Records
---
Amino acid sequence: MSRLERGLVGLALALGLAIAAITSGIADDPNWLPEQAARSESHDQFKPVTAPSASLDSLAATWKNPLFSPDRSPDHAVVQAQAASLSGLTLTGVLINGELRVAMLKRSDGPPLNLHQGQSLPNGWKLDSLTATHAEFSSQGRSQRLALYAPRLPPPSTTPPTFLPHESTP
């Protein structure tokens, strides 16, 4: 036997002894902690903790000095200017389900809006009527219509298709 073979036989014998020791239960005796005396405390002495109640007046300082504002000053009020038209809005969707009529609008400078029929935009324009393809708005005697953008497919190409050279498949 060569030196390598003797080493492998020795390793196999050592592993066999380890397996025999594990399966025979030599190391199965756990080291348990000593048993503690039972507690004689009753559950009656513990009372549930309730959150303290606060009035709105006591929380007013929270609104005046916001926690996450870097200078701890109130947020500046956003001034909504009266819009002369609905030029910054796009009608992106319409939801009509029985009495529920909602126009989905996208602003060019802000988050999208969902506006129910009869509600007004922050700039004063009121949604008067809503159909599947357009929305009618009115403000101070003026009216304006936003149409749903319906993209069209381009016309078919007139260029002939490209063919690969004839080659046999492998």
---
Amino acid sequence: MQWLLKARLRRAQELLENSTAYVDQIATACGFQSTVTFRSSFRRMTGVSPASYRRRFKAA
């Protein structure tokens, strides 16, 4: 299960960096049942929220 979670979160990072999709759309696209679960898992893995991650690493 940890491998799957990490794979989903890596995909979410790619989408946050390279797309303009909303966070809830990214959560769904990556297989999370809810945005709350996604945000919590993302923060645990990266130490920042998905929105903060996007601001920091968005491709120009």
---
Amino acid sequence: MATDPSAPEQMSPFDTSEVRRAQVVGTGLIGGSVASALRKSGWHVTGRDAVGGHAQRALELGCLDAIGTDPEAMFCVVAVPAAFLAGEVTRALADTAAGGAVVTDTGSVKTPVARTITDPRYVPGHPMAGSEQEGVEGANPDMFVGAVWTLTPTETTDDNALRSCQTVLTDFGSDVVTMTPERHDALVAVVSHVPHLAAASLMCLADERALDDAPLLRLAAGGFRDMTRIAAGHPGIWLDICGENRDAIVDVLDELSERLTQMREVVAGADREGLRAVLTQARRARTNLPSRYVRPQELLEVRVPIPDRKGQIAAITMLAADCDVNVADIEVAHSPEGTEGVLVLVVARNEAQRFLAALAGQGYHPTTRDLA
């Protein structure tokens, strides 16, 4: 990010003059990958896992520096199944109170835990990343590079905790998006939960057909394999996900069922133009899926003066999400008087105009600057 010598001092959320200490709870595939990414970013990482031997294996593989609990940790990530999430987040907040750690998590469903835990240091989160591999053996420090990592702050979340979390995750190479827990759960039902169930249903259909026609699965080509790849995920985690996000998933399943019925009618009625319209819309939407911006010339710095009032960072980053604007980096420049500061966001240049218009519409007075 470009810096301006005349601007107020930009404050780092963590003191880099001392060892940055992190805690990871749950050392499976995601937790192990988080731990590895933290170590790659220069953190000293302590980890624990309720399953015997898991943390030891993470240590052997180089994901951790130490096993156990670090009460001086500044940053903590809880990566456990949904059924244990609230309890482990509560424990992590207590265990790391001495270091005042910011605590986040990797759960796929956010509303239940966000409503349960109101500690200002807690920032609910969800990385949209994973692998068909299972356990810490598949851990990869680059798993989150270019992946969306959603943060879902609540009214009780501290702004500095949110900013600190955004900074760490951006260092991972993640595309950090901020929204409410309820909106997150409704959206992931569409783009994650129902696709998994649809892939599982299609895979089961093919499997059962193969009982009567053995060559069927041998004919499975690239398209079928691509569409059903996610069905290889571990079944256990989906039991909790479907329980926690049941209402949103059922709503989307109902809508998908209606669309499949419409597709059946189009095909059964030999409606070539109707079929062409559906396939054209799908193709256009698929080719327009957003990609991550990596070249500096594609980015622009947006500077937004903000009052020293709770919730300002969350409000502006949620506004960016509402505008479908990617925030590639974020920082706060504090005023010497302490009454206001400047929120500095790096966004895609071709998305900046609609973000600026939205900010102005909400009463903010943003300015822009090219990256040096």
---
Amino acid sequence: MPADDPFPRPVPAVLAVVLRDGHALLVRRANPPDAGLWGFPGGRIEPGESLFAAAERELREETGVTARAERVIDALDALDRAGDGGLRHHFVLVAVLCRWQAGEPLAADDALEARWTPVEGMETALRLSRDVAGLARRAARAG
């Protein structure tokens, strides 16, 4: 897609929602949108890649953690707007609940930091991307 495309097309992407012992695995983003904010590991779905495979791959690439993708828990729009209000990017984020299997988080790829964060109180402890705390609570309730 050309950079000057006045109508950016939605880009399908995944979020790997991993919980362990009342904590969610979060990364601090290095790149826009949401650079500097904390959120779930994730990224674009590659052509021919399933949602679950994309969630597992993005999780591994960003944190070194391995998990088994189990089910979709939500889908969200992430709109990145320019200062004049024009749309720069539109991501459709599919949140996938993943069951931790192995590894401790180590930031890699486009993550500045990675860590386990208590689900309770995360919205006051960190500067979060939109919907992160709500998704974490929903995932915790889903078990």
